[in-house]
Structure formats: structure tokens, C-alpha cells
Amino acid sequence: MGELFFEERNIVVPGDKLAMGMDYLPAGGAFRDGECIRSKVLGILGINGRVLKVIPLKSQYRPRPNDMVIGKITDMTNSVWFAKIDSFRDGVLTVREVPEYIGDGDDLSQYYNFGDYVLAKVLNVNSTNAGLTMKGPGLRKLSGGRIIEVNSAKVPRVIGKAGSMISAIKEKTGCRVIVGQNGLVWIQGEPEHEFVAVEAIKLINEKGHLQGLTELVSEFIDKKMKNVSKKETEEKPKVEEKQVTQEKKSDKDDEEEQPKRRAVGRKASKKVAKRSKK
Amino acid sequence: MTTNKRTDGRNFDELRKMEAKVGVVSSANGSAMFKIGNTTAIAVVRGPKKLHPKFLQNPETGRLRCFYNMVSFSGSGDRVRPGPSRRTKEINLVMENALAPAIDLSRFPGSSVDVFVNLIQTDAGTRCAAITAAAMALADAGFEMRDLVTAVAAGLVEDQVLVDLNYDEDSHEMGVDIPIAMMPNEDKITLLQLDGRVKKEKLNEAIELARSACKKIYKVQRAALVERYE
Question: Which sequence spans correspond to the domains of chain B?
């Protein structure tokens, strides 16, 4: 048996000699150089029997067919939108690939305007562009909420095994979260809760390579959410002191507040649309 | 030369004090700082992004572009005039060629990967410090590389072979400056520049000296990259 120079989960840098001898086989992130196997990327070494692979700590997103991505509309022509998908290839969305009926000579900014974020699927990739589609379950314009960026190598960590991490974040914060394969993440919920979810995802982006990440993150969220709920309960008794009826009213207000906020968001985007038409 | 020490008290094969740090610019894909003596280089990697003008695009692979810059206050006397010059153009080219054998951009056809290197303090050996910092920044950004690239200047002062020249030695009237970059694991040289007269034996001696110096610098480079994630 050949000689191994590192242990499992060691951090290796490009060029490192991982193992000597023909017994070992290189997988992703490693390559064979004569007698030895060397690392191609900065990452964590994974050993699976005779197979050595290096899991990269960072990577650049390359669009592949059937990827769900979040894109930002940056440009449009008579029949196409261009979306920035955080890659060296632009996302291209043609009018044929949107579910809405678009008449001849329609202004495309009515449907998706500059600066809008869309959840789209990659159809095909050519040398310069990535063709996108909006036809499919769940694909839509993302209105409201907020967008944050993580490295595309950390997307599997944000989602977790069989979606365990993402569902934990959703459950604990009560936010809606969508993770694009390109590393853009959309979060929507109560402002305070949204903030906790953002912090948690940023934590994953930074500490994603550590073991026991799920526990670390869930502990983090629990701690933060406790503070949030403490604040909320501190605010509520004040209302109680005044009148019971008023409390009910304020509850209603809370309920109404969210749709209102969304409506404001919509109005604002319409305003932008009008302005751009002018 | 009759003494066996240099002007700053170093031995002939001794490097200046080194310091390296990865991830110094948080907005960048990858970044690194490398300091050797009083020469400090900060490298930032941006991209891959679509390359414009289009005729520069290579449909088979990405293109590595380097942008070397000495900050206006970096010198020890007059203000360094900003903007491109004959010298920076040469260094950009030299850096690209020194890094190109190590990095694989075939996954990003038609794109460019830009490496910006700023030197905030200089005391000779800037292109070597820039290459060393750039290699770390590229590795930090997660690009596929065969190896890191490490660079150091070897040289001759009055027929004595030295490594890692400081400004006094570099500007010596009887001095020759030989910047050398290499891939330490591959043990291959990717850059060798020389202007001046030098005997074949002395050149070989200088290369050997630089080779062992590069291995020392590589250890600092590697430690900085690992430290970032530990």
C-alpha cells in the first residue's frame, strides 16, 4: 500500500502531495502526477477507501442545466431579459420561456423590471450565455424579502443533508427561504426574524467547513430567537396595561402590517416601472 | 567583498522577515497579503467575469490578467506617479506568464480572472512579492491550480551570490538582479529574468539559492492558507 501524507478532514492547499503510490485514486479536487496524487484546490481532504478527493472551501459558480438560480434582471431587449446570475455567463430569459402571455410590442418591464430578482431554472448553457426558463413549479419573481450572497461552494452546507439545515432555519425563524444554486439566497419573514436568518446563513458561509455545523447553527438561532421573542414579550405587556380591547386591535394591526408592507413593496416597484417607462 | 555579512546584517542565503495573511479584503473572491522585509503586497482576485473587449476572449479557456500597481506613497523618496507605465506593463505580463502554468481556467471559457496587486511599501523585490501574494489570493478564491507559485529575487553584488535583495543591493552599481518564480512542489521555474552580465556558474549558483529560498517562502504561504480555515 502506498503512503498517505495527510489525514481525513485536513486542510490542503493546491499542489500538496496527498499520497504516494499507484494504490490511491484521485477524485474531484485531486489529480495524479506520476507516482503521487496531488491536490488541485484549497479544500478539505476526504478519504474514501483508496479514493482521495478534496472538497473545495470556495468555488466559482458555473451554470449547469436544471440548476435553480436566483437572478437579477439587469438588461432587456424587445424579446429577451438578461439576468445577472453571479457567474461569468449571463442568464438569458426569452419571452417564450415565461408563463405570462406577452403580446407583440409589449413593454417587457411590465413583467420583469430592472432590478427585479427572479427564481429561474437553467435550461441550457452555451459558450457565452445560460438560457433560463420561468416555466416550472415554484419559479417566479421574488418580491419583498431580502437577498444575500454566499459562496456557491457553501450552497450544499446551507441546504444540509436532505435539506436538514434549510428546514431548521425555516422552522426556527419562521421565514421563507429560497437558496439558488448560484449562491444567492432569498429570505422573507418578520423583519427581526429575517435578520436572524440572515445572520445564521452568514455564519454558515463563514464556518461551513467545520464539523458539527448543524448544532452550531441551531444553537446560534435559538439564542438569537430568544432575544427576539424577549423583545416582543417586553413590548406586549405595555399594550395589555391600557385596555384589553386595544390589545386585540393591536394584534389585528400586526396581522395587517405584513400584507401592507408587501403592498408598499409592490407599489414601489410599480413606481420604478413607471419611471423607467418615462 | 571581504565581509561575510550583508549591509543589513543578513547572511547571503538569508531571507528578510516574512509575514503572510489570507482573506484581507472581505469583498473580494480571494485576497492575500504578503510582506517580506519592507516590501508589502496586497493581492485581490476578481472574477471570473465576461471578458471585454470581446476579441480578447479565448473560447477555450479563461484569461488571467494581472494589474500591478505601486501606491503613490510606497517608495522611499519621491511620490510614485500613478497610472500605467512601461515598467508596470512589463510586470503585468511577467506576472501573468509566471502564474499561468499553475492555474487552470479551462472551466471558465471566454472569461477573465483579474488579479490586482497593490504594493503599499516597497524595498526591492516587488514583482516577486506580487507573484507570491497573487498565487495565495488565487488559491484562496478557489481556483484549480497545479501548484502555488513562489517568487524571490536572487542576485549578484560584486560577484557574491545573494538571495532576496533589498534596495541597497538591488541598486548597487556592480549588482545583478535575477527575479525567479517557481512552482515549489513541481520544482519547475516559471519566471527567470536577468539583465546584466553574469557568468554561467554564478547564474546556476543563484538559481540554486533561489530554489531553496522559494521552499522557505512556500512554507509561509501554505501556513497562511491553512490558518485562514482552522
Answer: 18-228
